[in-house]
Amino acid sequence: MNNRAALAVLVVLASPVLFPRPRVSAVSSAELAVTAAPAEDAAVLVGAGDIADCRDLAGAEATAKLLEQVPGTVMAVGDLAYPDGTKENFECYDKTWGRVKSRTRPAPGNHEFHSAGAAYYFGYFGSAAGDPKQGYYSYELGSWHIVVLNTECEAIGGCNAGSQQEKWLRADLAAHPVACTLAYFHKPLFSSGGAHGDDLEIKPLWQALYDANADVVVSGHDHDYERFAPQTPDAAADPKRGIREFVAGTGGKNHRPFTAPHANSEVRDATAFGVLKLTLRSGAYDWQFIPEAGKTFADSGSGSCH
Ligand SMILES: [Zn+2]
Q1: Percent of the chain whose pLDDT exceeds 70
Q2: Residue 14 Cα to ligand 1 middle (Å)
Q3: CA 304 – ligand 1 centroid, Å
Q4: Among 5-19, 223-237, 250-264, which stretch is predicted with the lowest mean pLDDT?
Q5: Which structural domain, as residue segments, surrounds residue 288?
Q6: Closest CA to 251 of 38, 56, 42
Q7: How confident is the model at residue 76, as a pLDDT?
Q8: Ligand 1 mean position to 241 CA, how many Å?
């Protein structure tokens, strides 16, 4: 093939709009990640919780492979290093998700706190994990404000209204009155997962987010994937101002079954490890659950900020 013919082939392959091709039924997750490249003004936040267990790293390895394919900021949503968040446990995390450590902003989970003060979590991530006395912090990503919370409430003086973290959260949100806000933290307020379910201890934090008109929350803790419709902290459907919650406890540890679906639950899966990719655009967002290689469950859609 001469250069001109080779170029023509390249153009056809790269131009699905100009030269539509029939959809291939078995698209690999790696291909999905590549084809869903963000628009130019968009930022990408991708990740999951409940990740690496030294006793079986296959799941964490599968999701680490996905992250290698997706540029953007990585959210590690708690329970990163099983069973006890020790130095050795974090060496196993490092073998997998350590590959994207330089672009990771973590949230701590309960297993990190099996080691007093989550010392090895904070030691491993350094300043990327925020103040070790708090474990909560915020940052800007594209046009979005991102808040990371610490749901190990007992370790930091509670999560109730008036607690240090809740007061910090309200002040942080007031200081960043942007159109689009996302928060991620380990324990979900809403979950149909059979192992844990709803965690009402988190409700005051959700209330603060709702009061400030936040848009999206991502949690883990239950080892499954679940998507909720926008709702209030009292679980009332609220398409206008509600927060859309994702549970993405699919980082690789294992899967556990659901109970009956809770109110506003839209999609559930407990078969595939994978990562949740959020493309954060100006005034809107797209979500895509990318399954590990060999699994077929997927979920995608879009929402607007309010
Ligand atoms: Zn947990």
Answers
A1: 87
A2: 42
A3: 29
A4: 5-19
A5: 27-304
A6: 56
A7: 98
A8: 28
